[in-house]
Write a structure and sequence with these properties.
Blueprint lengths: L1 E9 L3 H11 L9 E3 L2 E5 L6 H10 L4 E7 L9 H5 L16 E3 L2 E4 L9 H11 L5 E5 L12 E6 L4 E6 L2 E6 L10 H10 L5 E4 L6 H9 L4 E6 L2 H13 L6 E5 L2 H9 L5 E4 L9 H7 L5 E9 L4 H15 L4 E14 L2 E10 L1
Parallel strand pairs: 6-7, 11-12, 11-14, 12-13, 14-15
Antiparallel strand pairs: 1-3, 1-4, 2-3, 5-6, 7-8, 9-10, 15-17, 16-17
Length: 355
Protein backbone atom coordinates (compact mmCIF):
# COMPACT_ATOMS: atom_id res chain seq x y z
CA UNK A 1 0.00 0.00 0.00
CA UNK A 2 1.12 3.57 -0.73
CA UNK A 3 -0.45 7.01 -0.43
CA UNK A 4 -2.18 8.28 -3.56
CA UNK A 5 -4.49 11.11 -4.46
CA UNK A 6 -7.84 9.65 -5.37
CA UNK A 7 -11.37 10.47 -6.42
CA UNK A 8 -13.88 8.89 -4.05
CA UNK A 9 -17.18 8.23 -5.81
CA UNK A 10 -20.32 6.10 -5.26
CA UNK A 11 -19.84 2.67 -6.75
CA UNK A 12 -22.82 3.20 -9.07
CA UNK A 13 -20.93 6.05 -10.79
CA UNK A 14 -17.68 4.09 -10.94
CA UNK A 15 -17.41 3.23 -14.65
CA UNK A 16 -18.39 6.73 -15.79
CA UNK A 17 -15.95 8.28 -13.33
CA UNK A 18 -13.04 6.07 -14.49
CA UNK A 19 -13.70 7.00 -18.13
CA UNK A 20 -13.87 10.71 -17.30
CA UNK A 21 -10.65 10.62 -15.25
CA UNK A 22 -8.91 8.83 -18.13
CA UNK A 23 -10.19 11.39 -20.64
CA UNK A 24 -8.89 14.20 -18.41
CA UNK A 25 -5.48 12.52 -18.41
CA UNK A 26 -5.23 12.27 -14.62
CA UNK A 27 -5.75 8.51 -14.10
CA UNK A 28 -2.79 6.91 -12.25
CA UNK A 29 -2.09 3.50 -13.76
CA UNK A 30 0.41 2.68 -10.99
CA UNK A 31 -2.41 2.00 -8.53
CA UNK A 32 -5.52 -0.16 -8.57
CA UNK A 33 -9.06 1.08 -8.07
CA UNK A 34 -10.11 0.19 -4.54
CA UNK A 35 -13.66 -0.62 -3.43
CA UNK A 36 -14.70 0.17 0.14
CA UNK A 37 -18.31 -0.61 0.91
CA UNK A 38 -20.39 1.33 -1.61
CA UNK A 39 -17.53 3.64 -2.61
CA UNK A 40 -14.76 3.46 -5.19
CA UNK A 41 -11.38 5.14 -4.80
CA UNK A 42 -10.02 6.00 -8.26
CA UNK A 43 -6.27 6.81 -8.22
CA UNK A 44 -5.20 10.18 -9.63
CA UNK A 45 -1.76 10.97 -11.03
CA UNK A 46 -1.90 14.58 -9.76
CA UNK A 47 -4.11 17.17 -8.12
CA UNK A 48 -6.87 18.16 -10.58
CA UNK A 49 -6.78 21.73 -11.89
CA UNK A 50 -9.58 24.17 -11.06
CA UNK A 51 -11.23 23.51 -14.44
CA UNK A 52 -10.88 19.74 -14.03
CA UNK A 53 -12.51 19.96 -10.58
CA UNK A 54 -15.41 21.88 -12.12
CA UNK A 55 -15.81 19.16 -14.75
CA UNK A 56 -15.84 16.45 -12.08
CA UNK A 57 -18.42 18.34 -9.98
CA UNK A 58 -20.64 18.90 -13.04
CA UNK A 59 -20.74 15.17 -13.69
CA UNK A 60 -20.93 13.81 -10.15
CA UNK A 61 -22.93 15.44 -7.37
CA UNK A 62 -21.44 13.15 -4.70
CA UNK A 63 -17.64 13.03 -4.79
CA UNK A 64 -14.53 13.75 -2.74
CA UNK A 65 -10.86 14.36 -3.54
CA UNK A 66 -8.75 12.67 -0.85
CA UNK A 67 -5.39 11.06 -0.15
CA UNK A 68 -5.62 7.37 0.77
CA UNK A 69 -3.58 4.18 0.94
CA UNK A 70 -4.17 2.28 -2.33
CA UNK A 71 -2.75 -1.06 -3.55
CA UNK A 72 -0.06 -0.70 -6.19
CA UNK A 73 -0.70 -2.27 -9.57
CA UNK A 74 1.63 -5.16 -10.43
CA UNK A 75 3.57 -4.00 -13.48
CA UNK A 76 3.34 -6.36 -16.42
CA UNK A 77 5.02 -6.18 -19.83
CA UNK A 78 3.35 -3.36 -21.75
CA UNK A 79 1.46 -4.41 -24.87
CA UNK A 80 0.32 -2.11 -27.62
CA UNK A 81 -3.25 -2.57 -26.33
CA UNK A 82 -2.17 -1.28 -22.91
CA UNK A 83 -0.50 1.74 -24.51
CA UNK A 84 -3.66 2.56 -26.45
CA UNK A 85 -5.94 2.58 -23.40
CA UNK A 86 -5.88 6.35 -23.04
CA UNK A 87 -5.59 7.17 -26.76
CA UNK A 88 -8.86 5.92 -28.21
CA UNK A 89 -12.46 6.41 -27.03
CA UNK A 90 -13.39 3.90 -24.30
CA UNK A 91 -16.32 2.51 -26.29
CA UNK A 92 -13.90 1.36 -29.05
CA UNK A 93 -11.43 -0.35 -26.72
CA UNK A 94 -13.14 -3.74 -27.08
CA UNK A 95 -12.66 -3.56 -30.88
CA UNK A 96 -8.86 -3.36 -30.71
CA UNK A 97 -7.09 -6.30 -32.40
CA UNK A 98 -6.02 -8.79 -29.74
CA UNK A 99 -3.87 -11.00 -31.98
CA UNK A 100 -0.94 -9.99 -34.16
CA UNK A 101 0.97 -11.96 -36.79
CA UNK A 102 4.69 -11.21 -36.59
CA UNK A 103 6.41 -12.10 -39.87
CA UNK A 104 10.06 -11.13 -39.76
CA UNK A 105 10.10 -7.46 -38.77
CA UNK A 106 6.54 -6.88 -40.03
CA UNK A 107 3.46 -6.90 -37.80
CA UNK A 108 0.14 -7.73 -39.46
CA UNK A 109 -3.15 -6.63 -37.88
CA UNK A 110 -6.81 -7.04 -38.72
CA UNK A 111 -8.49 -3.73 -37.89
CA UNK A 112 -12.27 -3.48 -37.71
CA UNK A 113 -14.03 -0.70 -39.69
CA UNK A 114 -15.00 1.28 -36.57
CA UNK A 115 -11.27 1.80 -35.87
CA UNK A 116 -10.42 3.16 -39.34
CA UNK A 117 -9.83 6.67 -38.00
CA UNK A 118 -7.29 5.32 -35.50
CA UNK A 119 -5.29 3.01 -37.81
CA UNK A 120 -2.21 5.24 -37.87
CA UNK A 121 -2.24 5.60 -34.10
CA UNK A 122 -2.59 1.83 -33.68
CA UNK A 123 0.31 1.17 -36.06
CA UNK A 124 2.59 3.73 -34.44
CA UNK A 125 1.80 2.35 -30.99
CA UNK A 126 2.61 -1.19 -32.15
CA UNK A 127 6.09 0.00 -33.16
CA UNK A 128 6.58 1.61 -29.74
CA UNK A 129 5.46 -1.57 -27.95
CA UNK A 130 7.72 -3.90 -29.99
CA UNK A 131 11.07 -2.47 -31.05
CA UNK A 132 11.67 -5.32 -33.50
CA UNK A 133 8.82 -4.14 -35.73
CA UNK A 134 9.83 -1.91 -38.66
CA UNK A 135 6.54 -2.05 -40.61
CA UNK A 136 2.92 -2.44 -39.53
CA UNK A 137 0.39 -3.68 -42.09
CA UNK A 138 -3.39 -3.77 -41.85
CA UNK A 139 -5.26 -6.42 -43.83
CA UNK A 140 -7.14 -4.64 -46.62
CA UNK A 141 -8.89 -7.62 -48.23
CA UNK A 142 -9.62 -11.29 -47.79
CA UNK A 143 -7.36 -13.96 -49.29
CA UNK A 144 -8.53 -14.49 -52.85
CA UNK A 145 -7.61 -15.75 -56.30
CA UNK A 146 -5.65 -18.75 -57.52
CA UNK A 147 -2.48 -17.31 -56.01
CA UNK A 148 -4.06 -16.91 -52.52
CA UNK A 149 -2.96 -13.31 -52.00
CA UNK A 150 -4.49 -10.37 -50.16
CA UNK A 151 -4.03 -6.61 -50.16
CA UNK A 152 -2.41 -4.77 -47.26
CA UNK A 153 -2.26 -1.15 -46.15
CA UNK A 154 0.91 0.20 -44.55
CA UNK A 155 -0.24 1.98 -41.39
CA UNK A 156 3.16 2.64 -39.81
CA UNK A 157 6.87 2.31 -40.51
CA UNK A 158 8.64 1.45 -43.74
CA UNK A 159 6.37 1.11 -46.82
CA UNK A 160 7.08 -2.51 -47.77
CA UNK A 161 5.70 -6.04 -47.68
CA UNK A 162 9.02 -7.91 -48.05
CA UNK A 163 10.85 -9.36 -45.05
CA UNK A 164 13.00 -12.26 -43.86
CA UNK A 165 11.20 -14.57 -41.43
CA UNK A 166 13.17 -16.93 -39.21
CA UNK A 167 11.44 -20.15 -38.24
CA UNK A 168 12.84 -23.28 -36.62
CA UNK A 169 16.39 -22.51 -37.75
CA UNK A 170 15.44 -21.60 -41.34
CA UNK A 171 15.47 -18.23 -43.14
CA UNK A 172 12.44 -17.56 -45.32
CA UNK A 173 12.17 -14.62 -47.71
CA UNK A 174 8.53 -13.56 -47.79
CA UNK A 175 6.60 -10.97 -49.80
CA UNK A 176 3.16 -10.80 -48.22
CA UNK A 177 1.63 -8.98 -51.19
CA UNK A 178 2.72 -11.70 -53.63
CA UNK A 179 2.60 -15.04 -51.80
CA UNK A 180 0.61 -16.49 -48.89
CA UNK A 181 2.48 -17.15 -45.65
CA UNK A 182 1.24 -17.79 -42.10
CA UNK A 183 3.53 -17.79 -39.04
CA UNK A 184 0.74 -19.58 -37.16
CA UNK A 185 1.76 -22.83 -38.89
CA UNK A 186 5.28 -22.79 -37.43
CA UNK A 187 4.71 -25.75 -35.12
CA UNK A 188 2.99 -27.68 -37.93
CA UNK A 189 5.96 -27.12 -40.26
CA UNK A 190 8.27 -28.48 -37.56
CA UNK A 191 5.97 -31.41 -36.72
CA UNK A 192 5.81 -32.68 -40.30
CA UNK A 193 9.57 -32.26 -40.77
CA UNK A 194 10.15 -34.53 -37.74
CA UNK A 195 7.85 -37.24 -39.17
CA UNK A 196 9.82 -37.57 -42.41
CA UNK A 197 12.16 -40.58 -42.55
CA UNK A 198 15.62 -40.63 -44.08
CA UNK A 199 15.52 -41.67 -47.72
CA UNK A 200 11.94 -40.56 -48.36
CA UNK A 201 10.64 -38.74 -51.41
CA UNK A 202 8.17 -36.01 -50.47
CA UNK A 203 5.87 -33.96 -52.71
CA UNK A 204 4.77 -30.62 -51.26
CA UNK A 205 1.76 -29.98 -53.49
CA UNK A 206 1.10 -26.34 -52.53
CA UNK A 207 4.55 -25.26 -51.39
CA UNK A 208 4.28 -21.46 -51.31
CA UNK A 209 7.61 -19.94 -50.29
CA UNK A 210 8.73 -23.33 -48.93
CA UNK A 211 8.25 -23.52 -45.13
CA UNK A 212 7.48 -27.26 -45.20
CA UNK A 213 9.99 -28.17 -47.91
CA UNK A 214 12.91 -26.15 -46.50
CA UNK A 215 12.52 -27.52 -42.98
CA UNK A 216 12.31 -31.13 -44.15
CA UNK A 217 15.45 -30.69 -46.23
CA UNK A 218 17.34 -28.92 -43.44
CA UNK A 219 16.46 -31.64 -40.93
CA UNK A 220 17.36 -34.73 -43.01
CA UNK A 221 20.51 -35.75 -44.85
CA UNK A 222 18.85 -38.12 -47.33
CA UNK A 223 15.55 -36.74 -48.50
CA UNK A 224 14.20 -35.66 -51.87
CA UNK A 225 11.53 -32.95 -51.84
CA UNK A 226 9.55 -31.80 -54.88
CA UNK A 227 7.95 -28.43 -54.11
CA UNK A 228 5.17 -27.29 -56.45
CA UNK A 229 3.15 -24.08 -56.58
CA UNK A 230 0.99 -22.40 -59.22
CA UNK A 231 2.11 -18.90 -58.15
CA UNK A 232 5.29 -17.85 -60.01
CA UNK A 233 6.07 -15.17 -57.41
CA UNK A 234 5.88 -17.76 -54.64
CA UNK A 235 8.20 -20.10 -56.57
CA UNK A 236 10.68 -17.25 -57.16
CA UNK A 237 10.81 -16.73 -53.38
CA UNK A 238 10.95 -20.50 -52.86
CA UNK A 239 14.02 -20.74 -55.12
CA UNK A 240 15.70 -17.96 -53.13
CA UNK A 241 14.93 -19.79 -49.90
CA UNK A 242 16.29 -23.06 -51.28
CA UNK A 243 19.58 -21.31 -52.07
CA UNK A 244 19.83 -19.32 -48.82
CA UNK A 245 19.20 -22.42 -46.71
CA UNK A 246 21.68 -24.49 -48.77
CA UNK A 247 19.32 -27.31 -49.75
CA UNK A 248 19.75 -27.11 -53.53
CA UNK A 249 20.65 -30.80 -53.73
CA UNK A 250 17.52 -31.88 -51.86
CA UNK A 251 14.67 -29.62 -53.03
CA UNK A 252 13.42 -29.29 -56.61
CA UNK A 253 10.86 -26.59 -57.36
CA UNK A 254 8.19 -26.53 -60.06
CA UNK A 255 5.82 -23.76 -61.07
CA UNK A 256 2.42 -24.78 -62.40
CA UNK A 257 -0.86 -26.42 -61.46
CA UNK A 258 0.05 -29.47 -59.39
CA UNK A 259 -2.41 -31.65 -61.30
CA UNK A 260 -0.41 -31.26 -64.50
CA UNK A 261 3.00 -31.35 -62.79
CA UNK A 262 2.25 -34.66 -61.05
CA UNK A 263 0.84 -36.24 -64.21
CA UNK A 264 3.87 -35.23 -66.29
CA UNK A 265 6.76 -35.69 -63.85
CA UNK A 266 5.89 -36.97 -60.37
CA UNK A 267 3.32 -39.78 -60.63
CA UNK A 268 4.06 -42.70 -58.32
CA UNK A 269 7.17 -41.15 -56.76
CA UNK A 270 6.05 -40.04 -53.31
CA UNK A 271 6.43 -41.73 -49.96
CA UNK A 272 4.67 -38.70 -48.48
CA UNK A 273 2.51 -35.83 -49.81
CA UNK A 274 1.63 -32.56 -48.12
CA UNK A 275 -1.69 -30.91 -49.05
CA UNK A 276 -1.66 -27.54 -47.30
CA UNK A 277 -4.41 -25.86 -49.30
CA UNK A 278 -7.27 -26.26 -46.80
CA UNK A 279 -9.91 -24.44 -48.83
CA UNK A 280 -9.45 -26.73 -51.87
CA UNK A 281 -7.40 -29.77 -50.83
CA UNK A 282 -10.41 -32.08 -51.13
CA UNK A 283 -10.46 -31.36 -54.90
CA UNK A 284 -6.87 -32.62 -55.22
CA UNK A 285 -7.07 -35.88 -53.27
CA UNK A 286 -7.04 -37.79 -56.59
CA UNK A 287 -3.79 -36.00 -57.53
CA UNK A 288 -2.24 -36.92 -54.18
CA UNK A 289 -3.28 -40.54 -54.70
CA UNK A 290 -1.65 -40.48 -58.15
CA UNK A 291 1.56 -39.04 -56.67
CA UNK A 292 1.90 -41.67 -53.91
CA UNK A 293 3.86 -44.82 -54.71
CA UNK A 294 1.92 -47.93 -55.74
CA UNK A 295 3.16 -49.59 -52.55
CA UNK A 296 1.55 -46.85 -50.47
CA UNK A 297 2.54 -43.73 -48.57
CA UNK A 298 1.47 -41.04 -46.13
CA UNK A 299 -0.89 -38.16 -46.87
CA UNK A 300 -0.98 -34.95 -44.79
CA UNK A 301 -4.36 -33.43 -45.61
CA UNK A 302 -5.67 -30.06 -44.43
CA UNK A 303 -9.21 -28.66 -44.48
CA UNK A 304 -11.36 -25.90 -43.03
CA UNK A 305 -14.38 -26.87 -41.01
CA UNK A 306 -16.97 -25.21 -38.83
CA UNK A 307 -18.38 -28.40 -37.37
CA UNK A 308 -18.35 -29.11 -33.64
CA UNK A 309 -17.12 -32.59 -34.63
CA UNK A 310 -14.52 -31.04 -36.86
CA UNK A 311 -11.80 -33.70 -37.03
CA UNK A 312 -14.21 -36.60 -37.58
CA UNK A 313 -15.95 -34.73 -40.40
CA UNK A 314 -12.60 -34.09 -42.13
CA UNK A 315 -11.61 -37.76 -41.74
CA UNK A 316 -14.84 -39.02 -43.32
CA UNK A 317 -14.54 -36.66 -46.30
CA UNK A 318 -10.93 -37.73 -46.86
CA UNK A 319 -11.73 -41.46 -46.73
CA UNK A 320 -14.57 -41.01 -49.26
CA UNK A 321 -12.38 -38.96 -51.63
CA UNK A 322 -9.53 -41.51 -51.49
CA UNK A 323 -11.93 -44.36 -52.30
CA UNK A 324 -13.26 -42.42 -55.30
CA UNK A 325 -9.65 -42.28 -56.51
CA UNK A 326 -9.47 -46.11 -56.39
CA UNK A 327 -7.17 -46.23 -53.41
CA UNK A 328 -7.81 -46.86 -49.72
CA UNK A 329 -7.11 -45.23 -46.38
CA UNK A 330 -5.41 -48.06 -44.53
CA UNK A 331 -5.21 -46.07 -41.29
CA UNK A 332 -5.90 -42.60 -39.90
CA UNK A 333 -2.59 -42.00 -38.14
CA UNK A 334 -3.86 -38.92 -36.38
CA UNK A 335 -6.00 -35.81 -36.73
CA UNK A 336 -5.97 -32.51 -34.89
CA UNK A 337 -7.12 -28.91 -34.89
CA UNK A 338 -4.19 -26.89 -36.25
CA UNK A 339 -5.55 -23.46 -35.35
CA UNK A 340 -8.67 -21.31 -35.40
CA UNK A 341 -8.99 -19.23 -38.56
CA UNK A 342 -12.17 -17.30 -37.69
CA UNK A 343 -14.95 -17.52 -35.10
CA UNK A 344 -16.33 -21.07 -35.27
CA UNK A 345 -13.96 -22.03 -38.11
CA UNK A 346 -10.86 -24.18 -37.71
CA UNK A 347 -8.06 -25.56 -39.85
CA UNK A 348 -7.94 -29.33 -39.42
CA UNK A 349 -5.03 -31.62 -40.19
CA UNK A 350 -5.41 -35.34 -40.94
CA UNK A 351 -2.48 -37.75 -41.36
CA UNK A 352 -3.45 -40.91 -43.22
CA UNK A 353 -1.69 -44.03 -44.46
CA UNK A 354 -2.72 -44.73 -48.08
CA UNK A 355 -2.52 -48.16 -49.72
Amino acid sequence: MNKSRCLVIPRTDGQAAIELVRNLGIYDRNFRVEQTGNELCIPLSRQPTKEEKKTLHRNFQVMELLVRDLPERIQRPTTFVDLLTDQIPPHLFASLPRSVDFIGDIAVLEISPELDAYKRKIGETMMIADKRVRTVLAKASAISGVYRTRRFEVIAGEPRTVTVHRENGCQLYVDLSKAYFSPRLSSEHARIAKLVNEGETVIDMFAGVGPFAIQMARRHEKVRVYAVDVNPDAVELLNKNIAVNKVLSKVTSSVGDVRGVVKEHLAGLADRVIMNLPEKAIEYVDVACEAIKSTGGTMHYYAFTGSSESTSVAEVRLVEAVEKSHRKVDKIIGSRTVHATAPYTWQIGVDARIT
